[in-house]
Amino acid sequence: MNLIQKIQKKIDQKTKPLGALGKLEEIALKISLIQNSLNPELKRPVHLVFAGDHGLADEGVSLYPKEVTAQMVFNFLNGGAAINVFCRQHNIDLKVVDAGVDYDFENNPEIIHRKIAHGTRNILKAPAMTIEQCHQAMKTGKELVQNEYLKGTNIISFGEMGIGNTSSASLLLHKYANIPIEDCVGAGTGLDNEQINKKIAVLKKAAEKYHPVLAEEILTYFGGFEIAMMTGAILEAKENAMTIIVDGFIATSALLAAYKIKPEVLDNCIFSHQSNEKAHKLMLEYLGADALLNLNLRLGEGTGAVLAYPIIESAILFLNEMASFDDAGVSKSK
């Protein structure tokens, strides 16, 4: 009997009808396989939020000015954002990373200082990053995850903050999945139809400017520092056999890049939430993924991932603590 069969037998012997715990059974099986164990554990959950600015924001693709990125980082550091509330609720260790914010946080020890530059370049004028910057960002993401792994973490999630980053995510989906720009663009932070049409026009112009083929080159031309760091972080989490909780549109664009580099990364992913950003549904379909929740969120920060954590925790608890038919002296179905 192989490991999959052993895990499935353990699940099926619990005091319930076959398959009665639905997606919880799928989660229990997946994490058991990730950990290569019949008795998986969730250890020291960590949530990393990567912040970075985008040069393309200068083209009016967001309702908010770039200054909001830095302002929201201060909100994270002061404990006032949604992600702070939910991480406190579920005892998840939250860490905030300056991947490339157009602001200097040197005097603040609460932030992890990993700034590549003061924001990416405007894609209409030059590729968002140099290949060296993209590699540096990915390497940094890997190092940050490795640090958490060495402290004992085996389940991790990622969030982001960056005015204009839905534009990068839309361009990455367009280039990686060959989906028309019109289908890749949504309301972002709350654009109306006229503003969405303007955003589509800007992104079409950006998409037509460059035609890279390799996965890392696409990320370099159209991504962001926070997205590239998440990509590296996801790849490192896979290398360390960690469970990866995948959040919404921006985080899944980083996963899309990681998937194009290493397809097996999906084996370690649990998709937490289907964003209200319309193109996220297309991303999930492209990856063959089914999200646990659909709460109409489009906040970013990784809120969907953290909200899904107790469901994932419940899957592990039922596997390890629920009685079997033999334990409870309950007759099985005929």
How does this model look, in words?
This protein has 334 residues and is of the alpha/beta class. It has one domain: Nicotinate-nucleotide-dimethylbenzimidazole phosphoribosyltransferase (CobT), large domain (Rossmann fold, 3-Layer(aba) Sandwich). Helices cover 49% and strands 9% of the residues. The protein has a 6-stranded parallel β-sheet, sandwiched between helices. Strand 5, helix 11 (249-261) and strand 6 (269-271) form a beta-alpha-beta unit. Helix 5 (131-150) crosses helix 9 and helix 6 (165-177) packs parallel to helix 11. The mean pLDDT is 95.
Give, in spatial order, the strands making up the sheet with the most strands.
3-2-1-4-5-6
Number of beta-strand segments: 6
Q: Outline the biggest β-sheet.
A: 6 strands, parallel
CATH class annotation = Alpha Beta
Name the CATH architecture: 3-Layer(aba) Sandwich
Shape: globular
The overall average pLDDT, rounded, is 95
Structural class estimated from helices and strands: alpha/beta
Q: What is the CATH homologous superfamily assignment?
A: Nicotinate-nucleotide-dimethylbenzimidazole phosphoribosyltransferase (CobT), large domain
Rounded to the nearest angstrom, the radius of gyration is 20 Å
**Tally of separate helices:** 14
Uncertain runs are none
SSE run = HHEHHEEHEHHHHHEHEHHH
Total domains: 1
Span of the ends, CA to CA: 23 Å
The percent range for helix content is: 40-55%
How much beta, percentage-wise?
Answer: 5-15%
What name is given to the CATH topology?
Answer: Rossmann fold
